[in-house]
Design brief:
139 residues; alpha+beta; seven-stranded antiparallel β-sheet; 29% strand; globular
Amino acid sequence: MDEALLAAYRATDYRVRLTGGGWASIRIDSPLPDTLRDLTGYYHWGFITAWNPLSQPQSRARNQLAQKQLLQRLKQMPHVRATRAAVGVGSNGWHERSLFVVGPPASAFDALGQAFGQNAYVHGDGQGFARLRLLAAPG
């Protein structure tokens, strides 16, 4: 993973759909938005996708199938407390559907990210700061 891709990940607006409508924006190295704190409590959370493995664009149909498979895997996990629709939006207009998931430990998110070919995902502990968790070594 090169520095430009890493910078793009850091500049992305990670948006979580709120149950009452609208979006909450998560930013890397910033506190979790107040609108998500009741949902997360003190549990681990992750912002993850199955779209575009290794940051290589895929067809919409392939991305949708992979995302459906990710959701199915999450439904089978015992520690999932909540799942919300989400979308990552880059500064250049790029976007990909994602999921905001509360409950599983980082090791479970790592396994999912690796299973779906992701370079990284956004993770946090409770109401702390959002961190970019790399699964592929920066290059």
